[in-house]
Amino acid sequence: MAERTIYVFAKSDVAITRDSGGGQPVAGDLIGASLNGDAFSWQSPTDLSLTFSGSMTAITFEDTDGILRDDPFADSTVTDQFLTEPVTINGTTYEPSTGTVRWDNPQPVNVENEYEVTLFDDNGTVYHMVGISITQGYSTQVVGVAFNGATPPPGTTLHYIQTVSTYSATGQTMTVPEATVCFLAGTLIETPAGPLPIEGLKAGMEVLTLSGTARPIRWIGQSSVCGLGKLAPICIKSGVLGNTRDLYMSPNHRVLVRSSKAELSFGQCDVLVPAKAFVDGVNVVRVPMPKASYLHILLDEHDMVFSEGIATESLFSGSVTVGVLAADALAELEEIFPHFQHSQQRSSHLALTMSEARYLIESGSHGDVHSVELCAA
Q1: Residue 133: what pLDDT?
Q2: Is residue 298 scored above 80 in pLDDT?
């Protein structure tokens, strides 16, 4: 399984009004009620306006295939889409659980795609709104909405048009890309000419890889994002994992770990662990900042490069889809690599989920980041 994150407008941040009769607010919880059918159509003949406000809430879960579905169950067992990080939405906090059987204690907690509704903006552009639910055991609550495809910016008003808008609650799916792996600007990357700041590297230049081979950079991109909350950089302090300086990476950027425990537990000695799994508040910490300048390095194949002296992954094209990289970055990649979005690199090593990574770290001799061995340059 891989850990994935979707961003949701809480249903408390979606204002629904009638398009006739002076734009009066609609009473009741239409977003929640649509769990049981197209509650928006029950307002017929009145068309509706939905205004999305506030900041979106991140919901993180483990997933087998990058597709968010309804009812990931086999009889009474939850098989997929397990919540992995606590989330507070609409005033309720949902906690991850180790349970998998719905009637058992602890109850499993999972994320679902309950329904999809087509909405329209003032120009007639179609948006696909998805009702996102969290299920605890047998109790399911629609907590908000995400969008399958383009997401309207906060403050946008979209319209439900009676007999034109559609509703689906069976078989609908939503593709959820993995988060892009990035280095923070200023990170030193090992090259045949010695360590160089990543922002000084360009396509065509070579970087050293774990095999000892120098490989050319095919593409390098940069994104500036709000570094507060989920996208705050992770700082692995100097020397903690064998790194020569403080190393700053995006939370899902993976580090190569060599561990006999990994071989016993997962069948492979060398495994990839996301940076956020090492966070202990002392040696590895989140460093929120108003703006984080992240850079990505793409090689011909997914590989290990050396950042501040330790092996960390290059950009994995299997996780790059619309909605992860900016549109201009995707357009540039498509120019360089036709059919880029349809290509799939193979991961160079087994990638652990967050729960697997935490188990590996906590089952070590010290129960902390010092109990794992890193691959160094």
Answers
A1: 98
A2: yes
Is the pLDDT confidence value at 344 over 60? no
In DSSP notation, 222-262 reads: EEEEEESGGGPPEEE-TTTTS-SS-EEE-TT-EEEEE-HHH
7 strand-pairing partners: 58
Distances (CA, A) of 288 to 119, 184, 231, 275, 314: 35, 12, 8, 15, 23
Q: What is the pLDDT of residue 173?
A: 93
**C-beta separation of 305 from 314 below 8 A:** yes
80-94, 105-119, 137-151, 329-343: least confidently modelled range = 329-343
pLDDT score of 340: 53
Please check the confidence at residue 32 and state whether its pLDDT lies above 70.
yes
Tokens of 304: 């290990």
Interior/surface letters 152-183, b for 16+ CB within 10 angstroms, e for the rest: beeeeebbbeeeebebebeebebebbbbbbbb
CA 339, chain centre distance (Å)? 23
Amino acid at site 60 = T
Phi, psi of 28 (to 5 degrees): 90, 175
Residue whose tokens read 């629609």: 142
Nearby residues of 301 by Cβ (< 8 Å), 6 or more positions away: 345, 346, 348
Cβ(324)–Cβ(204) below 8 Å: no
Burial of 49 (0-12, 13-18, 19+ CB in 10 A): middle
Q: How far apart are CA 330 and CA 221, in angstroms?
A: 10
What distance in Å separates the CA atoms of residue 296 and residue 275, rounded to the nearest whole number?
15
